[in-house]
Amino acid sequence: MAALGAGGAQSPHVVNAANSLTFGLMVVTSFFNSALVNLTSIKFALIFGTIGYAPYAAGLYLNSKNGASWLIILGAGLCGISAGVFWSAEGSIILAYPERNKQARYISYWLMFRVLGQILGGAVNLALNVDRDEQGSISTNTYLVFVALQACGPFVAMLLSPPHKVQRKDRSPVYLNIESSTKKEIKSMLKLLASPNVLLLLPMIWQTTWSEALIGTYATNYFTVRSRALGSLLSAICASIANYLIGFFLDWKKPSMNLRGKWAFIVVYALQGGYWIWAIYIMNEFHNAATKPVLDWTSDGYGRAFALYIMLQVGFNMMYNLTYWIVGSINDDPAEIVRLASIVRGIESAGQCVSYGVNSTRFRLDAVAGINMAQWAICLLPAWIVVRKIGITKDGVYIHEPAIYAPEEERKKLEEQGVHGAVADGGRGGH
Q1: In the chain, where the domains are located
Q2: CATH fold for domain 2-159+189-400
Q3: Which CA distances in Å does 429 have to 95, 249, 410?
Q4: pLDDT tens track for 367-381
Q5: CA distance 326 to 340
Q6: pTM as predicted
Q7: Cα separations in angstroms, 333 against 192, 260, 330, 397
Q8: Is the confidence at residue 140, as pLDDT, over 80?
Q9: Which of 54, 71, 80, 261 gives 20 to 30 Å between its CA and that of 420?
């Protein structure tokens, strides 16, 4: 729905304001996710996190049907309460469940599954709106499909295996337990938030998802309904391919982890710089046009404007992939991974809250693109300070695989079974 621009609505302003509310609430629920996991389980957190999406889609349906906005606001609030937990829970799962030496690949799978929802949604959008060659809202029937799919979420989440039952190929166990009181857990979250690596990564985490609101508003303002539907489908396919490539590169064992991290960072950030310059140029041209363009796939100039939309979506997803690989590479402790995922999701949500708030106004889009580029520039140096040390042990050894976490007693069992690379107490090591 986000890939349609403004959730498929005719005007982006009400929907962007609702999304700002959603992400504002997600900041709070994301930071308390580790405490919730401590009190219940990661499976319960995932189930709870899925319950708020269907009411929000129902609000978009009602708004499109008769112009009522009350359910959008209520749905946005319910989604904000649950989605912060969902984001943090799924982030924790994808960082902790796979084998350590396949983490980047599984992050890619995760993000590919994420955009698979967009591919499915895009196919539905295009099928139901293929004749809509004018600006406006998508067909109301589209929302009913989304409501039905999202209502299945809690039941699908029940299928998650608990950590102790996960069967890894290398036979190493999964640790995702937090054994502390809620008060201690909150203190641990604050302590981790103040650690040097996390502080240096905060600008990058904030910037990772800041562009989503701009991309959607750009689509809403300048494209017809069926062009937006095509964009939601095609951008998901392109993003899946990009995620697959970057994930398998980051898991390629021939270069060291350090070299892979540096090259991925340089390529992703160089591409970002290029398409932000392009975005400012095109959005400025559209803003200053005598007549605001509304582009259909039959229109002159559609190709370059649509290509910008696709590139912004692909860049958004590549940043996601890289950010989670970096976060997953700076710590091995399972409890810390849950906290890190909560911090990442909380900061992302805070950024999106502000971003959607900005885009709910009539602020010119070329200026918003300029803000995005400024944030891109600000996070370059702090993030590079962290990236240049990834995959280097304290004694200066460049490793090719991350270590398997295990407490001392489990480490001995793993070594007896022939599973190498395990380290006690979350230290760094590897092959």
Answers
A1: 2-159+189-400, 405-431
A2: Growth Hormone; Chain: A; (1.20.1250)
A3: 18, 21, 16
A4: 999 999 999 999 999
A5: 11
A6: 0.75
A7: 12, 22, 10, 20
A8: no
A9: 261
